[in-house]
Amino acid sequence: MKFFPAQAAGGTAYLKSLAGPLPQARFCPTGGIGIDSAPEYLALPNVACVGGSWMLPADAVAARDWERIEGLARTAAGLSAGARSR
């Protein structure tokens, strides 16, 4: 389930509180998540993925800087593997 706006609605603490009563639920938090906070979300067992506009900065899209966007997407994809292995 999409959880938006994640950070404003309680962030990782709220998602942790849902794990007990809803053990089969999986969330995709978005809203207020950045490259620095994404690993904390991804480390939660009830988080399947995160979304964040940090991967598509408006200036990079406007400039058609696909190389930069690709690099940001690769960094984001690497977060998932790293967070799950902890």
TrEMBL record:
Keywords: Carbohydrate metabolism, Lyase
Pfam families: Aldolase
Domain of life: Bacteria
SUPFAM superfamilies from the UniProt entry: Aldolase
Pathway(s) of this molecule: Carbohydrate acid metabolism
Assembly with partners or alone: Homotrimer.
Family (UniProt): Belongs to the KHG/KDPG aldolase family.
Name recorded for this polypeptide: 4-hydroxy-2-oxoglutarate aldolase
Organism: Streptomyces haneummycinicus
